[in-house]
Amino acid sequence: MSEPEAVKKTVLHTLERGLxxxxxxxxxxxxxxxxxxxxxxxxxxGTCYHLLRTLLADGYVVRLPGGRYDVGHxxxxxxxxxxxxxxxxxxxxxxxxxxxxxxxETSYISGxxxxxxxxxxxxxxxxxxxxxxxxxxxTGHMHARASCKAVLAFLPEEQVAAMLEGVxxxxxxxxxxxxxxxxxxxxxxxxxxxxAVDREEFSExxxxxxxxxxxxxxxxxxxxxxxxxxxxxxxxxASLTVAVRExxxxxxxxxxxxxxxxxxxxxxxxxD
Length: 272
Prior knowledge:
The protein is α+β, with helices and mostly antiparallel strands and 272 residues long.
């Protein structure tokens, strides 16, 4: 039996469905009803009610007027715990706020640690964008995200090859780079220009621009990113490039000067 098959056999499907319900309730932001959840998730209505009652009893969801459900205090506490553990240092958070105030676009900071780039925090822009399932703690699709390309470009080539060469690169959108040779060419371009661009490679209708920041050894430690609707990306690209590169430069300066509270190694990466 293969490892994936063995894992499937150990999955508790009731728990799996319960987590899917909790995720759907969170995504609906207080508008979800049992009927809507049942239809959206393909779960029998009776089962959906049973799962909601269990989540309600344990404080993971709350029931609102009109039979609607929202995230409860225990689920919210899990989110705060994740934010505390994986969030950026206060100094880097200030730079992120500055980036958001300069661009008025959704702005992100991600940290690189042990071969993974993790989204640590973001501030939504004036026009909120739905960028796939991108949220705090997200680590997937490194070949498709501007932030990941910004960091990968400045890693040793053999390290990138060990991670991605021969690995299937999923076509997240029709524009996603799916061939390793094309990705290495793209990373070479990122190195030359000092920033990375995602033109609807991760989410259709959305473009992103990202610049990496570095520690005192010159290794990439993370990246600042902004996302913008593709309809206005061209007109804003130049100003966004200046803004993310400034943010990255400020973070690099703090890291190299050892001016992050608790030390750069504690705050530029998520924990084990």
